[in-house]
Design brief:
CATH class of the largest domain: Mainly Beta
Pathway: Cell wall biogenesis; peptidoglycan biosynthesis
GO biological process, one term: cell wall organization
Keywords: Cell shape, Cell wall biogenesis/degradation, Peptidoglycan synthesis, Transferase
Number of strands: 8
Distance between the termini: 75 Å
Family: Belongs to the YkuD family.
Structural class: alpha+beta
Order of helices and strands: HEEEEEHEEHE
GO molecular function: carboxypeptidase activity; transferase activity
């Protein structure tokens, strides 16, 4: 009888310990999913990094506009902009797998376009692959193919989508 009680008591302790680890693990994974507070895109390295409190959270290889060298100066130049922006919108139903709208053109871009008497363009996004073409996966990295956007795989876009909020600052470097 005594042995049975000891066993049941041990089982209760083990169950309580298990519940405690599950709760602690869940709270740790929740804190790991806190939003990023900054995005840095380095065009020359084809790299996008998400930061939280100055610490690197995630890093991705990206495809850029078909003419990746130099800042975007006008509509249709197939360049990815350079400068300081922010995420100004989210679209779960875009032509590409999910998209985060970047606030291009900013005041500097608009001024440059006015001086050159051209349209600065717009609709610059961070997005996944074209809808229905998920199978391409990382092969999209073989060349720069967007109109000026920043492209990642659909799986990576799911991760980015969960971590990036409207208002997140975006720095795009040469």
């Amino acid at each position: 009888m005594e042995i049975g009680r000891q066993f049941r008591g041990s089982a209760r302790i083990s169950a309580a310990t298990l519940v405690m680890f599950v709760v602690i693990g869940a709270s740790l994974s929740l804190s790991a999913e806190e939003p990023a507070d900054r995005i840095v895109i380095e065009k020359s390295a084809h790299r996008m990094a998400l930061y939280r409190s100055g610490l690197l959270v995630h890093q991705y290889k990206v495809s850029l506009g078909g003419q990746p060298v130099g800042p975007k100066t006008r509509q249709g130049d197939h360049r990815t902009p350079e400068g300081q922006y922010f995420i100004e919108g989210r679209n779960e139903h875009s032509h590409y797998y999910k998209s985060l709208r970047i606030s291009y053109p900013n005041a500097t871009d608009l001024q440059r376009a006015r001086e050159q008497k051209v349209s600065p363009g717009g609709d610059i996004m961070i997005h996944g692959l074209p809808n229905g073409e998920r199978f391409i996966g990382k092969l999209h990295l073989l060349h720069d193919w967007t109109e000026g956007c920043i492209a990642v795989t659909d799986e990576e876009m799911d991760e980015i989508w969960a971590l990036v909020r409207v208002g997140t600052p975006v720095e795009i470097r040469p």
